[in-house]
User: Which sequence fits this backbone?
């Protein structure tokens, strides 16, 4: 069983930065794709960024050039560095672990609020 715990959310002003962390339990972290998704009330959860076990990354167009996803396999942790934050980045951010055998796990989410 895998558990994911997000941290690092909070309230910031436009233009500021935050770094989210996702700590994973279990032994499949290093062979899994890690992802960050976000959701606002009334909208579907949307992809923010993913990173494969081989460190290939993918970003939503809305965050390209501002957000960076990374992973530290020795610490079973994934990160999302968010720079130049905008009010439209306000959302609950969820961590996802996807294993190629079809296993999917989600964290409980961390709230990011960008407001002046």
Assistant:
């Amino acid at each position: 069983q895998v558990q994911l715990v997000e941290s690092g959310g909070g309230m910031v002003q436009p233009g500021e930065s935050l770094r989210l962390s996702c700590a994973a339990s279990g032994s499949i972290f290093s062979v899994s794709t890690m992802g960050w998704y976000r959701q606002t009330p009334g909208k579907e959860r949307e992809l923010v960024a993913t990173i494969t076990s081989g460190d290939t990354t993918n970003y939503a167009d809305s965050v390209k050039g501002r957000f960076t996803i990374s992973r530290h396999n020795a610490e079973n942790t994934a990160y999302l560095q968010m720079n130049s934050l905008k009010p439209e980045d306000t959302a609950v951010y969820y961590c996802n672990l996807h294993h190629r055998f079809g296993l999917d796990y989600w964290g409980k989410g961390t709230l990011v609020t960008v407001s002046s």
User: Anything to note?
Assistant: Residues 90 and 110 are 11 Å apart (CA to CA). The mean pLDDT is 97.
